[in-house]
């Protein structure tokens, strides 16, 4: 099939690369000329394991075209994915649809009469019908269908999530449009992946409801971890006991410093806005957001208590990304912990294997940046593990003790066992675990 993908950001590029790997000819359009030039050189503009290799594989097979030319990208395409950004407006938590609206206007003059336009971006309920209206107002024939097909990608494992999904959701009023999209996903159909065809509105809400549920689950186990700390028991044992119940499941039951990234914070706020539009309250989601926002300050407070205050203390921070295997620092709890430590008067030196460049845009010179874990921790009064990078878990706690001037290690990702930390001569602070 001839496929067009609008947007070479996270959602758009992952979609383009993976759909190309299904055997289709893909044209990926972006208005950012520098980004397109970088992609033509084989450079992926963000860190995502496996994506660069898969992109090169399909470029070598002549299945890929990167361009800034709308007509070249869209003309003759059977399916046009819109995978542009839908950022959160920080003032009120609403979703900014400017890029989606502009994409619809840009592609309209170039669409084939039987094209299927697919909303791949996370968008509020009613967006598919809005895009359809924009296309009709631009003179596009009624035969062009607009379908909602939300992505369920996790940063750090997006390629695997796309190629081996739990399900594919298609929101369409017409069976024919859904069938065309299934042809684009033919390997998934052949592999027996569940396809759920709903109305466009249901598909749009499924995405928000899924992410909000995950956010609530993560927040719940973090509150259990705080309670476990107060009682003096191991929250991981509690989490295991909960997760063995098949009705609940084991995933998203690992205590940590809170959720972040480009999806869960944005989508929880987005769901609240959708609910407000229909005069509904989402009390559970509201509470999850509030609890999550407070966790970094709570954890920084624990460090302060253990050190007898933060003023003038040197802190080595391991991790800046919101989780491992990504360079994304958007709404990162690690960033928020750094801010809280600096606010208390601490001097923070941080290391992250991938996210330092982006973190500097947020934190500037309020902290120092190291080139290795050893450099970040050398001479520190305390060490903090805020992101679960695999390489952090490969460090010997005895080395950490040797590098630091102090003896406090706050492992908020539960990478080490408390016993290993204490055995190395370190004091331990965790999230739901006792030293």
Mean pLDDT: 97
Low-confidence stretches: none
The computed structural class is alpha/beta
N→C terminal distance: 58 Å
From the 3D coordinates, which CATH architecture of the largest domain would you assign?
Answer: 3-Layer(aba) Sandwich
Integer-rounded radius of gyration:
23 Å
Broad shape: elongated
CATH topology of the largest domain: Rossmann fold
Content of β-strand:
5-15%
Tally of DSSP β-strands? 14
> How are the strands of the largest sheet arranged?
3-2-1-4-5-6
Oligomer: single chain
Task: For this entry, give a set of tags.
six-stranded parallel sheet, elongated, Rossmann fold, 435 residues, 2 domains, 19 helices, single chain, alpha/beta
Architecture overview:
- With 435 residues, the chain is of the alpha/beta class.
- The chain has two domains: 2-198, Rossmann fold (3-Layer(aba) Sandwich); 212-430, NAD(P)-binding Rossmann-like Domain (Rossmann fold).
- Helix content is 46%, strand content 14%.
- A six-stranded parallel β-sheet has the order 3-2-1-4-5-6, with helices on both faces.
- α6 links the parallel β5 and β6 (145-148).
- The protein is elongated.
- It starts with a strand and ends in a 5-residue tail after the last strand.
- The mean pLDDT is 97.
